[in-house]
Amino acid sequence: MPPLPLSSFNVSSNFCTEENISECILYINQELSSLCFPPIFRNSDEMRDLDAVVALNNIHDLLQLHRRAVGMMEELEVEQLKSSSDLHYQHLTNSRLKDQLELSKKENMRLHERERQLETNLKTLQNCLKDAKEEVQRLQGIIASRATQYNHDIKRREREHNRVKERLNQLLIAKKENKQGMEVLNYVGRSDGRRCLWKTGKTESRHEGEMYKTLLNEFDNRQRELMVENIELKKVLQQMKREMVGVLNSKKTCQKEEKQSNNTDQSTLQTNSDDDEPLKGPPEMSCDHAREKLTNSIRQQWRKLKHHVERLDSQASMGQDGDSEEIISKQLHEEETERLKLEIQQCKEFIQTQQQLLQQQLNTPCDEETAAVLNDSYMLEEKERLKEEWRVFEEQRKNFDMERRNFTEAAIRLGHERKCFEDDRAMWLKHQFLNTTFADQMKPQSRRTDEFPKHSGHEEKLISISEERHLETI
Amino acid sequence: MSYLTKTSSDQSLRYSKRFAVYSSSSTMNFSEVFKQSNQLCKVSPDGKYLATCVQYRLVVRDFNTLQIVHLYTCLDQVMHMEWSSDSLFILCAMYKRGLVQVWSLEQPDWHCKIDEGSIGLVSSRWSPDGRHILNTTEFNLRVTVWSLCTKSVSYIKYPKACQKGLDFTADGRYMALAERRECKDYISVFVCDDWHLLRHFESETQDLAGLEWSPNGCVLAVWDNCLEYKVLLYSLDGRLLSSYSAYEWSLGIKSVAWSSSSQFLAVGSYDEKVRILNHITWKKITEFEHPATIMNTKAVVFKEVEKRPVVGSEDLSIHQLTMDNLLFSTQSKYEIKQLPAQVPVIKPDADRANPKIGISALAFSSDNRYLATKNDNMPQSLWVWDMQRLSLLAILEQTAPMRCFVWDPRRPRLALCTGNNKVYLWSPAGCVSVNVPVEGSFQVQSLFWHCSGSSLVLLSKEHICLCYVEAEEEK
Question: Domain of life, per the record (chain B) (predicted)?
Fold first, then answer.
């Protein structure tokens, strides 16, 4: 608040006017009393009695107060200025220090990072040092052992050297020379009986030749062995390939899912069949191309088989969730196998019980005699039955024969009787004719007589035919 | 002089579900004990005679009857004795005197003496035709080839003194000799017919330790000494076929063996592994490790277990003690150990040269199907590998370090000894431990098979004993 200018007191204030004197008096008194000054105006019956002394004292006091207040205000202002400038200064230093703090934090982090790197470096270097130390120790050990070996060797050679020197001395000193030589009663022949040969250029070249021959034989043998082995291995590889192809094919037909790969498989199958053709040539033809083709196709097939097996494995493990109907889930598969096993077990038991029973059957005769007797009795029974049947059969045959005989006899008799009958008839007719020839004229009878032999002949023929027929049927 | 027959009293065998019991069918007879010195006892190549040296005497016996057929006397103690390939002659070498004496079986009064004189003698051997003798002089100055047929003498200079510097092919036609001139290794191939130098070539080794022909005589395997792991394969005509090195620096090859079909070359080294090279590519097809803990294999671990016989107080009569020393000799049998099994390891002394670690002995069976190996820091165990499956088949763990193991030349059967009074036999059907029933102690130091595979010759320090093994029937 700006200090009140002194000059303002010179200007008459518009606080009090002629009209509001009493109010002003009251107001002033109130103010003075609030400030603990005695009132300047005695308030008695609306009289404006100004107590000049009191008033002057009050004014003096007020002036003093004012002066004091102004002084205080000035001081406060000064202090305020100071503090604001201090504050400003503090703000400035604060921001400066904050910046510094940031910078030093960054610096700190950088230093931490560096320290960490250095530590890791230190660790690796320590490891290297350890390794190097171990290596050094190892090499030192090697050097030490080599040194002992060298020393040992040197000592040995030195001893030998000394011995040589001694012997040389001995030989120089010794007078008599001990000549070396061989005494033999008689020379013996060579072990193979042949005579010794002179050394000539021819023998030398012969030796060379023999040496090379030996080497060549060895190479030939080895090459032959390797060839045989090679052929065997090729055969095995081809068989393996064929089997793998076969297995893959059969798997593919029962699996319905590999539709995509089917085409590629077919194509590889085709290439496989192509493979076979160059290899069907002579097996010794070991051209690199054919060999490579074979090994590549084997690798391919093996990879396919491996994938297939892996897929089956994963399917077997996934199949427990019941993925699709086409895959036989593992559980079902297991159930199936359990069922089959049970069935097998039952069958086995059945077979066993049967065997037991059979054994029992065979074993119930406790000794051989009864068994033999039983066997014989069985045989007898059979024989009896057979005999019975034979007898019956024989009877039947006899009967049959008899019947046949009777039949033929009957037929013959019938024939005879018929003949007789015809004869009789013929006789009778003849008689009739003869009897009636006197009564009738000759014409119809001549006709009849013509007919009769015909008739009788015809009838005779009929009879003979029927007889033959009858006889045939019998 | 007939031999006493004693059936061995202990032939027990524990079996697993895979092996059949065979002890009841086979019987082992042992012969009488004869004297020998220097472990010099050899059977003739045709199998008919047995020659032993006793001090300066050479005793030749008929193998079947063990009767002495010839007796020869040499001029000094015999250090080396060898039959000629046709079984007609025997050479006896006396290194101290520098003498070699040759005896004939057909004509006992025939004699031959080779005197190397002041040059001295370090080794002596027959050539494969049985008519030449190769003497190596002292300090390996030269090899002298003496002929029994002609008056010719050949000299070969600068032979190398190494583990195995000289080898003949199986058919006896060629000889390979390692030489060293001017700090370089050379290999010479000679034709044994007339000792004609066929090939002479430099070897790519730093310090050749040994060479060996393949059984088919076409490939020569050459290996470096233990400071460098290197195997070189040379063809008969001197061409380098291949070179194989498993690793650098550490101690290298300790032993090498060809399989009898020449298909495989087994290389045993100081890192306790055996590497098998194949004859087609000369590359490693597999390596056999010898770990201290066995687990996860189909192999069977046989452990020899000694059982002390229980002695009752009433048995301790003087009579019993003197007559039956089997009472004090421990019986032993094999038990099958459960996997995982621990193989006993003896750590070698690190400061010594040629440390006792690594595969020091390799042997293929005669039918090529099995390989037996011995790892020096597991000296009590013998490892048997199946070459068809290229895997471990069996481990035999003995109670004492093994001294010697040999394959039967006819069938897949292995005999081994550990310096005690027992001989051990292994075959794919199982294994058995047999006491040598000899009065007094008979510590079997080494053994070898007769060429027919029907008997074993056991050698102790001063004696020999024959062991007749019947062929087992397959069960």
Answer: Eukaryota
